From TrEMBL:
PANTHER family: POLYSACCHARIDE DEACETYLASE FAMILY PROTEIN (AFU_ORTHOLOGUE AFUA_6G05030). CDD domains: CE4_HpPgdA_like. This is Carbohydrate esterase family 4 protein. It holds the Pfam family Polysacc_deac_1. GO terms for biological process: carbohydrate metabolic process.
Length: 307
């Protein structure tokens, strides 16, 4: 038995929703909204063609606003055999929502997405912008979500997600005596949610998306630079993975409004063909990783920390 590599494309179909999430309700720039429409239409069509060319089934994390605004596109994605996962309603940042608002958004999004999956249900969630909150795991468990793709305790192994609400961290607060905050964190406690880790260094948005309102984005990075960065991550993990029954996951996060651009599509083609030159590679959905991990067919790791 050789090594196994489970590669996944997580596709955030933010479309217009990401640009509508101005947090304060201030008006959005219609030109930015048009970039979202490009993503939901032209970008999505091109990414579907790319995946079909290489016979890859991916996981599309779809804000319910996108699903309700572009229903024909979501049907097309489902009909092509891809998985649909949760990603907020208008890409709201969980970190700015009350627990009640988190419940309302998750409940509504789940109801909307279930309408597209023909009774198959929705198993996974990724936090918009990977901004989470202390109560997030409790809310996901309440709604029966099985896996998450927002945390970064590891970069290439699945694990049971520690519940942030069950670990105490004390923020540095210089208004108080130093003895107040000089305390270690308490022990991490795993939840029932499977984590398939997120990784900013396997994401197309920061290098390839120009956004004048987001200082972390660039937009003009040479695709060959990012191709090398992604390949080097794969190369190291592949080299270090034990030959006899070792495994790792390689979750890539992309957005049709970014990866649907010609120069980025060509990068994906080169990357997929290079990855496919390795023994033991399988392209799978996130749901498949979750299922294999829960059934003990994928080893994963246990995340430890705190006292
Ligand atoms: Zn997103």
């Amino acid at each position: 038995m050789g090594k196994r590599v489970l590669c996944c494309y997580g596709i955030d179909l933010d479309a217009v929703s990401g640009w509508l999430n101005t947090i304060t309700g201030t008006p959005q720039n219609p030109t930015d909204l048009s970039r979202g429409i490009f993503g939901a239409t032209v970008g999505t069509n091109r990414v579907l063609t790319l995946l079909s060319k290489y016979n890859i089934h991916a996981t599309w994390f779809v804000p319910a606003h996108t699903a309700e605004s572009f229903p024909g596109q979501i049907h097309k994605i489902v009909d092509a055999g891809h998985e649909i996962g949760l990603h907020g309603y208008t890409h709201e940042f969980v970190s700015s929502l009350s627990v009640e608002q988190q419940r309302d958004v998750l409940g509504k999004s789940m109801e909307v997405l279930k309408g597209f999956t023909g009774g198959k249900g929705v198993k996974g969630w990724t936090a918009p912008a990977w901004k989470t909150g202390r109560e997030v795991v409790r809310v996901l468990e309440e709604f029966g979500v099985e896996y998450d793709h927002s945390f970064m305790h590891h970069d290439s192994q699945p694990y049971y997600l520690p519940d942030p609400a069950q670990t105490d961290y004390i923020e540095t607060n210089v208004e108080k005596p130093a003895s107040h905050w000089m305390k270690p964190m308490t022990a991490l406690k795993p939840s029932s949610i499977v984590e398939i880790p997120a990784n900013w260094h396997l994401d197309d948005w920061p290098p390839f998306q120009l956004s004048l309102s987001q200082p972390s984005t660039h937009g003009y990075v040479d695709t060959h630079v990012i191709e090398r960065l992604w390949k080097e991550q794969f190369e190291y993990l592949y080299r270090e993975c034990p030959e006899d029954g070792g495994s790792f996951v390689f979750p890539i996060s992309i957005h049709p409004q970014v990866s649907g651009k010609p120069q980025v599509l060509l990068m994906h083609e080169r990357l997929i063909e290079w990855i496919n030159g390795h023994e033991g590679v399988e392209w799978v959905t996130f749901e498949r990783v979750c299922r294999e991990f829960k059934e003990g067919r994928l080893e994963g790791v246990v995340v430890e920390g705190g006292v």
